[in-house]
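Teaching soon. Invent one.


***
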Amino acid sequence: MYNPELDCSARIQSGCSLPSSVAKTTPAERGVALSPRAAPLPPPPPPPAITPAGITLEGNNDPSNPSSWWYLDAAVTLARHNTYRAKHQAQPLAWSTRLQKEAQDWADNCWFAHSSRPYGENLALGHPSITAAMDAWYAEEKVYDYANPQFNAGHFTQMVWQRTYLVGCAIGVCPDGVSYVGGVWMGKLYVCMYWPPGNYMGQFSENVYPPVDGSRRRQALGSGEL
């Protein structure tokens, strides 16, 4: 059955892209990301509880085992988020094992598509590490227009959204590859979930601030200079 949410051809304008094996890019260009959804109004339900532990699997496919290929370092992931958020005067995020479990459960489906969960979501496929995936999400900042804020750089805006205060991420345990429209990608699927979700229409200016280093402040003030 045709499903426009999963059909990349129906999502090209919102940023959906296919793994680099299809695009025939070089290894350095192999990171792709699925565009996050713009969250609908009204405001979301109460936040999830922060639980003491995430999920565990057995053997080499245990994502909580540092020796596993599927292991994600929560401290590194959280620190990278907060480094970028600090540039935009956003409060530091806290790590939620509840969101980490939700992200793991969805990522373990091994399908490059958004879930129907009530959280903000950033997904990426093909990057060598979660750090590289986050760097790619943040790189969208250079196309974001602070003078005309809207949903055109959704991975970046979700990362620095002022009202968001929880995050949890995971790498899908996908030894047989990650399915996407057009084939199977033999690599890592990264999923981050956020609470409360960002990217609410009409709320970008109050939730996405220009970088404090001033590198793009002139653009935000309308000077037209970068």
Notes: Residues 80 and 134 are 8 Å apart (CA to CA). The chain has one domain: 59-220.
